[in-house]
Write a structure and sequence with these properties.
Elements lengths: L14 E2 L17 E3 L11 E6 L5 E5 L4 E2 L1 E3 L17 H10 L22 E5 L2 E4 L4 E4 L14 H10 L11 H13 L5 E5 L2 H16 L3 E5 L44 E4 L4 H10 L4 E6 L15 H11 L3 E6 L10 H6 L5 E4 L10 E5 L1 H4 L1 H4 L12 H42 L4 E6 L2 E6 L8 H5 L3 H13 L2 E2 L5 E3 L6 H16 L3
Parallel strand pairs: 9-19, 11-12, 11-13, 13-14, 14-15
Antiparallel strand pairs: 1-2, 2-6, 3-4, 4-5, 7-8, 8-9, 10-16, 15-16, 17-18, 18-20
Helix pairs in contact: 2-10, 3-10, 5-6, 10-13, 12-13
Length: 520
Amino acid sequence: MFLQPERPAVEGPCHVESAITVFPAAIAERDHDLVFRRELAVEPGDALVAERLRHDGLPRFRNRRGRRLVWTQAVRRGIVFSGMGAMRSYQKSTALYERTKKSLAGGVSSNVRYASTPVPLFFVRGEGACLYDVDGNVHIDYVLGNGPAILGHAPKPVIDAVARSLADGQVYAAQHPRETELAERLCRLLPGAEVVRFATSGTEAVLMAMRLARAFTERPKILKFEGHYHGWTDQTYISTRPSLNEAGPADEPVAVASSPGMPPSALADVVVAGWNDLAAVRNAFARHPGEIAGVIMEPVMVNGGAALPHDGYLAGVRDLCRQNGALLICDEVITGFRVGLGGAQARFGVIADLAIYAKAVAAGFPLALVAGRRDVMDTLLDKGVMHGGTYNGNVQSMAAALAALDELERDDGALYRRMESRGRALMEGLAALGAKHRLPLLVQGLPAIFQTFFTRAAPPRNYRDAAACDRDMALAFHAALQEEGVRVNQRTTWFLSAAHDDAVIAETLAAADRAMAKLR
């Protein structure tokens, strides 16, 4: 049943018992679409008008008499309100999610995918800068598989190369010429890469690098930074997004387990410091003399706010590592092959002892690697340091990476220059729109990977600064963007690809203009 705009809502002390319409388009056709707070119940004769979006895409209401009604939740999670004009339908995604939960734990294959509005969406196709969901909605995609799709979705040269490789088989449990060719090419392209070793995921490569550092230095501890993400394992998922009530003082943070089920022993050999603070690193070395094997960091704090390193910070950390006999480990899982062929190390001119790459290197196919000093990597042989993996160096991933590098290297990296220009235009355009709509919008990061915040404070320089920004407003912006056909993650992180051309950027900014109008 569809009711027309400004028709009275159906009587009920707590619920709207039938679908209502508050915009020109109908919202839903099932019962129990909205649940309101009991003390602000809908009464007979109320006609609801949406006033503004809240953080998960649902609106706050007022009725024609001016009394305000505040929603608490949508019982039918397949409903998202647009705030103005027609809304998008997610009925098929909702039905598929309910079906999938019966056979797939939680209905998703990665917990990160829960963070979607109104349910984890189901997609059927990706092409260029866009994804297409089961309900027929088109999304300009700035998630890009959480970063890997540097060439956009289904890039023909990569897809064709992988298709050709299928005729050769998939896994050999042995070496093959493509593996050698890719290793040689990576050693040529990556700063400090005397040798490489392949893995399948970034998390696995992080574990390898940490093991190598401990074996080489014969020390137990790893220093990591608040807000930096290095994978979901017990050894790495520490102080990733800690509650500030648990995290301890800023100058001497406490290691905090980021998931239930992690044993206390996982925290014993991890030292935590604040990012962008050389004194904190110096203090950590002083508190643990002769114990720290390596310092692992994202050279740009992508997972905790896209904070760039302060001038001299990366070099300062490298120097402290050298002075204290520890290895510097750069986690370039996201920045590698995204911010340039040489990654963040080349961009900032600081070379690590070991570096970890994944995501963009194979343009969306599963591949990771550790690159670095030969003497450190030789512990795989000299000291018998164990590293293995059934799918390491598989035929299809090697073929994908070789084809991707062909595109990334073409015309002396012209693709990166275009991405830099378009990404900068997008960042500047978003900032200008924030000013136009009088929103405290801050855009921070690099043109190929940046984040939007809502804050009137100074730009976040570390995790604690980012955690103080207006999370509810960011979630509202995420939901409003999705209704306008732009997909970012719920942290409002923006990944750019080569497929985001000038027309896509212009369309994105027009959509962002409409989305911001709903937030005022």
